[in-house]
Design brief:
alpha+beta, 5-stranded antiparallel beta sheet
Amino acid sequence: MNKTIFPNKLTLRVQFHEVDLMGVCNNAIYFNYFETARVEYIKAAGFYRTPAEMQTSENFFLIVRNECDYAEPAIFDDELNIYTRVEFVKNSSFGFEHLVENAATGAIIARGKGVMVHINRASKRSIPLTEEIKLAISQYQNHTAV
């Protein structure tokens, strides 16, 4: 997989409390990693100017789909790189793609995807993505097709 198409890279270490009785990073933890990576992407792309704005904006994003394919286990204290990009943009939603790489070996140990929907806070209904959001994604991803 060509990692250069992923504009966002988050590096973290597997923490002791994330390891299960089998000695590996628990499968559910990867969804926490994906959530952190999505928030970092949104901040870096400039959808919101501050974290407070993210929580109080008239409109927000809601995750409606999350999936993960596991290839190899991560263990306590492994350093992981989480690569994130927007894979597609639709009328009121967009899809993220994630690669989880073992930083020491370069092996891709998991792949994830998620879909976020643009929601109006008052009506609780989906609304079209703004042109500003679409432009922010395009510029952050160096105008790669989404």
